[in-house]
Amino acid sequence: MIYDYADRAIKDMNRRNLRSFDKLKLLKFDELNVLRMVNRTYEESVRIAKKRYLSIYLDAYLAAIEEVGRKKIEPDDSIMDDWLLDMLEDYDIVTHYRFNEETERKKARTAEALVATKVDAREVERALRLWTLQVSTYADRSVNDGRMQAFQDSGVKKVRWCTEEDDRVCADCDELDGKVFDIDKVPPRQHYGCRCYLIPV
């Protein structure tokens, strides 16, 4: 339920990205055309992702404010814009890269692969898989950042780590389940796809 809105946004982004990347499979080989279309595909995908990340963050923020029982507070647009810029530029301890730099790397790798293989559909599918993983991971981060900011804005001092308590919980997350942390000493996410969440204490 915490990640429901993010899941819907991820599904929509994946659908759009599939359509965009599928167009790359139809390219007639021409190096300049390939480079231009790859650039356009990633730029459009990033534009959509940024809009979605902001809406995910806001939704998570407002839900967490309500969870704490505070009067509805909307974060300032400039604060949200700053958060988005920071998130996309900062090194992420889970992914081990910066979103913007990794996007440029993936874009260059995709263009290089398509030029070298004269537009091979398998290379397009591989690029889409890797891009989907990146986009989804940062959507989950948007949820977590929005909730954490709401807790801080509401004066929450401590939070409890909660797992989904299903059969997919890893040993590292299971060890953290139920532990209480000062809000400024919460450990980082343990891995890709971590769906653990924090609740106020």
Give your account of this protein's structure.
This protein is mainly alpha-helical and 201 residues long. The chain has 2 domains: 4-155, no CATH class; 157-201, no CATH class. It is built from 6 helices and 5 strands. It has helices spanning 4-25, 31-68, 77-89, 99-116, 121-153, 171-176; strands at residues 91-92, 97-98, 158-162, 180-182, 197-200. Strand 1 and strand 2 form a beta hairpin. Helix 1 packs antiparallel against helix 2 (31-68), helix 2 runs antiparallel to helix 4 and helix 2 runs parallel beside helix 5. The longest helix is centred in the first third of the chain and has 38 residues, at 31-68. The radius of gyration is 19 Å and the shape is elongated. The model has no long low-confidence stretch (mean pLDDT 92).
Topology:
Elements: H1 4-25, H2 31-68, H3 77-89, E1 91-92, E2 97-98, H4 99-116, H5 121-153, E3 158-162, H6 171-176, E4 180-182, E5 197-200
Antiparallel strand pairs: 1-2, 3-4, 3-5
In short, what is this structure?
The protein is built from six helices and five strands. It is mainly alpha-helical and 201 residues long.
